[in-house]
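Reviewers asked in the last cycle whether our approach scales beyond single polypeptides. To address this, we selected a multi-component target totalling 943 residues and predicted its structure end to end. The input consisted of the following lines:
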Amino acid sequence: MNRQLVRLALVAVLLLVVLVVATTYWQAWAAGGLAARQDNAVELVSQFQVARGLILASDDKTTLAANRKVKHNGQTFYFRRYPQHGLAAQTVGYSTSALSQTGLEESLNDYLTGASTNLSNAIQRTLDRLGGATVYGDNVVLTINAGAQALAQQLLGDRCGAVVAMNPRTGAIYAMASSPTYDPNLIDKPGGYAKVLKITGACGASSALLNRATDGLFTPGSTFKMVTAAAAIDSGALTPASRFNDPGYCVEYGKHVSNAGNPDQRGPEAYGNVTLAEGFQHSINSVFCNVGKQIGAKTILDYAKRFGFYSTPPLETPANQRVPSGLYHDVKGRPVLWFPKDPATAVDPGRLAFGQFNMVATPLQMLLVASTIANGGVLPRPYIVDRVVGHDGSIVERTRPSNLGRAIKPQTAADLTQMMISVVQGGTGTAAQIPGIQVAGKTGTAETGINNVYTAWFVCFAPANDPKVAVAVVLEKQLNGFGGAVSAPIAKQILEKLLHG
Amino acid sequence: MGADALTLSYRNRELAYLVVVGVITAVGFASVYISRKSHVSAASLTYAVFFFALYLAAHVVARLTVPKADPYLLPIAGLLTAVGLTEIYRLGPSNALKQGLWVVIGVAVFSAALVGLRRDYRLLENYKYLFGLAAIGLLFMPLLPGIGQTVNGARLWIHFAGFQFQPGELGKIALIVFLAAYLREKREVLAQGRIKDWGPLLVIWGGAMLVLFATDDLGSALLYYGIFLAILYAATARFAFVAAFIVLFFAGSAAVYQGTPHVRERVINWLWPWTTHKVFCPLTGTMTLRQDCSSYQMVQSLYSIAHGGFGGTGLGAGVFANAQGQPLIPDLSTDFIYSALAQELGLIGAAAVLLIYMVFVLRGFRVSLGADDGFSKLLAAGLTFGFALQTFVIVGGILRVIPLTGITLPFVSYGGSSIIANFLVVAGLMLVSNRANSVADG
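The resulting structure, written as structure tokens, was:
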């Protein structure tokens, strides 16, 4: 009988060996895939046992996202609270007890939960975990200036729109406001999410969750003349002194494209004999229409790409909360980025030149155009996270400013700066003047398709001779609201706040 | 004396191993205490002391009744109960108290069995039909109105005087005794293929299987089938029988799969626990993803295991409840205790626990091999194989090796009947080995 018994013993041992192999499979092989699954409640709860890192403004004091401690059956859980009740709400985002996340809360989750870290921290964390001590995530310090951010939100008020400000030399974002906004604390409350969805601004549209600064596409109107002028001068086709005759209209495809109704233009309807610089200063559409015809749509689009159009601007926020600027067309009722095969025939160069046609841009993109000009022609790489700091205060990571390459020659940038100075000194943007500081800017007042209702832009930087701050402001659906009248004053106050403190 | 000091007697070795187990138990409870001291009192450490005292008492009984029994079995049982008790304590201190009580009763039953059968356990052979009928009777008890109780769709429990008891666990022991006795007697004639001798065997075994299907106790059905095949093979050495019954098993399974939605659901949960589209959820009557419905328990248990990773979260630091304090995995301390252990102890700890089971199984078969009569061999082999198979059925079910059926993990799961039944396994193996070693040592 012993032979059978030995065989049975082998079978029994084999059964147990199978269990060891299967356990190894689930704990070593498949563990990563399971941890990433949405319905993994274990992983979800374990995230709440980590004291999530704080999100702080650049002063290292203003806390945009903090924790609320909840004790349950002897276990401590950490849930989010937002002490500023919505300062930079769309940028910071939220993280709820159902682990629904947006904004930096989503994209920086690995830092905030301490999952992404260096080796010495990892060992310390493992020891903490085994000892049952609280595990702390890393804190994140943003480049956001709390004062400027609060002012931007206050100035926007209930008007729909966005304000973005950055250091044009480094790309550090000082303010990123989007209106209407919401209180992220609401999201985690019963029925709160539905309430947030119903928030409406003065424009009637809701989408308070949308970060209009990076995810909102607006017709740039005359602010796009910065790109057109840069293309004309940098390509050598024209100089700021190149002369144009403005009869009050420009002829395209045998039809008049009239200045009349260009809300951005200041002064007479027909300027007569002017230079390119004067055309820029007074935002004369017929001049730019002729510039567009002369250099062609392809050149304009090529330069637009150098300024970052047609690619999603890099930033630490989730990629699905940023969109590329450029020509869009409808595909099955949805706007889709359009790459015309032959721009010379497919694109109307005159209207493109003054930022109408199918051109749309995010406020961040237009800010990048101004910042490139301010930065001597080099496109700065925007960033919003200054540093990631461990719970013990050690620096885990610090952002080093970099750039996305040269867009235009330094001389072109200098010429454009001069032209932008004249806009504020005696053109369409005089409302942005600051005593003692030279401001360079460009207005934009884009048609919305509804009479006398405009998208009002102002994009600027200062001081013009040594740029420290660049600002872009956009306001949606402004009745008789021109960029120079409604947006420039906001930009001015943001500049003052950031330059004077 | 000098020679004796070098080769310790069986019982002195057992005592030494028990001391080691006692130390491990103390470390385990201390670990839980340290990580959960916010709501666990220092008095919890007395568990380890109490536990050690209890096993010391069992050891003394063994010393008096079965001095030459295998010295590994009792310490391994102690270690496994300690692992279980520590984890149960960590999951819910109130359950640990009850489990501790069951261990006391288990040790008492163990002692009673040793004392009662110390002269010759082989007299059990004479009552084989009684054991066979007892197995069916015990399995049948939960179906009786009044004391029977349905838990999780299976009617496996009896309930009286505030106690829940799963008599099927004891039925397993009774059936093993019957099979060992009957097959010892009839092995030659069965091997030759005399049809009439199959009668009593098939009546009793078949009766047990029928009751198991009536109570929807699929795990035990699988276990009983496996034990039957193992003892049949050991007794007759006819692989053809085994093959025939395995064919019968698959044919029967296919029929059961077709006929019972309960079984079909288990198999579907096993093969496709995750769906990407919504399927009908019989629990709520709505369309949901399967991982949110019928396979929820199994899927969350896998997440729990995966979360443990290589080193585990550490005792007391695992994640078993959501932020509102509700348990994430139903039946964690009973059927699913392995996924709790695997999360807190990690691959290292879980593999160590499985290796402890392996050592127990190897000792059990050693006892079987060392016995000098057919009944003892079959009894020891049946008890040991059943022990191994039970471990495989529940842990394999949790690990998706086989479809999940809820049975207990020997010595570790929370539950009194399981503890008592497994103490009887240890008692049986110790009785057999005591006799074999006494004969061998003269």
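Chain A has a mean pLDDT of 89. We regard this as preliminary and will revisit it once experimental data from Aim 1 are available.
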